[in-house]
Amino acid sequence: MIKHLTCIACPNGCQLEVDEAGGHVIKVTGNKCEKGAAYARQEVEDPTRILTSTVLAKGLELKLVPVRTSQPIPKARLFEGIAAIRELKLGRPVKAGEIIVKNFLGLAADLIAARTVHLPE
Amino acid sequence: MTARDSRLVTRDLVVVGGGPAGLAAALAAGKAGVKDILLLERDQYLGGILNQCIHPGFGLHRYKEDLTGPEFADRLIRETIDLPGLEISLKSFVVKLTGGRIVTYLKPGLMAEVKARALIMATGCRERTREMIHIAGTRPAGIYPAGLAQKLINIEGLLPGREVVIIGSGDIGLIMARRFTLEGAKVKAVIEIQKGSRGLVRNVVQCLEDFGIPLYLRHRVALIHGRDRVEKVTVENLDSGARFELSCDTVLVSVGLIQENELLEMAGAALQGLNLTSLPGVFVCGNAYKVYDLVDTVARDSEQAGQMAAEYLRK
In this structure, is residue A91 part of a structural domain? Predict the structure, then answer.
């Protein structure tokens, strides 16, 4: 079966034609680079996205600390991820890239800080 | 002390704006040998608009990684901040610029004047508002430029509404459709007057299609209803004239950006080719020069502005 996808790996937004059978990708055309083929395979077999949001800060210079998953997580679990992030509070200063929650939602991905946030001056 | 009785300080290079354009310009100028740089930023943090752009998609060219806005800013700041001869002045708001490159700025407790031998303006954009696109109806609460809503949610932790209609399919509007949805609001529709989305196609996919948000092309919001708070909008099909209503408590307006070049106008400078103005020694970069889609391109072109300023100073 032929599926049409728009690649979201980069701003080019290649129009992909994906030949798939039983949830498995046989052939991808229309991609300008390897990322497109990888995206098509992932999107057909197990769609994932990077989740970004903010964690409430307590006693830091900012009200919120932006966070992201260190790698894409299953699309079907995005709202579960948002609910888990909403339960968090951060009271210590963090550096961008620092792990906030290891193995977020029991996945291989970690939840990491996206911004360096200090104590107030 | 007032500006009048202070002695006029001269700096080799003054950069106005500490977002990605100003940072990249300062970085490149420093690397090209400029030893005395003053960077003026009106906010209390560097990074500009990147700080509120918490979504991914930044840095694929410059850092070969998919980063969020704050991460891109963090890297660029760390590259720039230790440049020898760079002074960063935060909470510094430029209020006046002359054709002779005299910059007047306010800082808490003082007004200062500095003469720049070379000047780079990296002042970015502001959003077009509802008033600029002539939508009929009342003036209730609940109508926000999309980027302001982004700041309220991502920086201030406030959700501006529960049921949202977005006017215009620019990237900020698309990104905010996803952000509102993830935060538990219902995004009823994105209404676009043109035949195609104005934003990147990847954002239509990952911000609208992922969440089943309808995009109405060749439609317009004909009327906003509501007395104290937005209650609904009337949407019109531009081809058939057919109308329907969508109930909502919030309307986001994502209809483009306006370059903030009032200071250049004040100095009598006109924009010319890439990063150039009609005044010698006065350069302009980033969204103040033209509205960019990608911060990676902003950084690349702004570095060129830094090099051009360095070249000018060598003459």
Answer: yes
| Pairwise CA distance, residues B183 & B159, whole Å | 8
Q: Is residue A120 part of a domain?
A: no
Q: Which residues of A touch B59 (CB under 8 A)?
A: none
Q: Does one domain contain both A37 and A57?
A: no
Beta carbons of A7 and B54 less than 8 Å apart: no
Residues A42 and A58 reside in one and the same domain: no
**ipTM for the complex shown:** 0.91
Task: Write the residue in B54, B157, B202 that is nearest to A56 by C-beta.
Answer: B157
Rounded distance, CA B261 to CA B157, Å?
30
Domain range for residue A16? 2-46
Q: Give domain status of residue A108, yes or no.
A: yes
Q: Domain total for chain A?
A: 2
pLDDT, tens only, B26-40: 999 999 999 999 999
Model pLDDT for residues A63-112, shown as the tens digit of each residue: 999 999 999 999 999 999 999 999 999 999 999 999 999 999 999 999 99
Place of tokens 């720039």: B80
Cβ-based burial of B139 (10 A; exposed 0-12, middle 13-18, buried ≥19):
exposed
Q: Examine the domain organization and report whether A75 and A37 are in the same domain.
A: no
Chain A nearest-CA distance from B275, in A, is 24
Query: Is residue A121 situated within a structural domain?
Result: no
How far is CA B99 from each of CA B92, B219, B259, B268, rounded to the nearest angstrom? 20, 45, 19, 6
> Which chain A residue is nearest to residue B75, measuring alpha carbons?
A96
Determine the pLDDT at residue B1: 45
Closest-CA residue in chain B for A63? B156
The C-alpha of A118 sits at a distance from chain B's nearest C-alpha, in angstroms, of: 12
Scanning every residue of chain A, which has its alpha carbon at the shortest distance from the alpha carbon of B184? A79
Tokens representing A46 are 């197990």
Is A36 in the same domain as A59? no
User: pLDDT, tens digit, for every residue of B189-236?
Assistant: 999 999 999 888 899 999 999 999 999 999 999 999 999 999 999 999
* Residue A4 three-state SS: strand
User: Is B202 in contact with A50 (Cβ distance < 8 A)?
Assistant: no
Measured from the Cβ of residue B296, the count of other Cβ atoms closer than 10 Å reads 20
Q: Are residues A61 and A100 in the same domain?
A: yes
Same domain for A73 and A23? no
Indicate the residue of B55, B74, B206 with minimum beta-carbon distance to A115.
B74
- pTM confidence score: 0.93
Apex CA B314: angle with CA B311 and CA B315, to 5°?
A: 95
Say whether both A73 and A107 belong to one domain: yes
Query: Residue A95 sits in a domain of what CATH number?
Result: 3.10.530.10
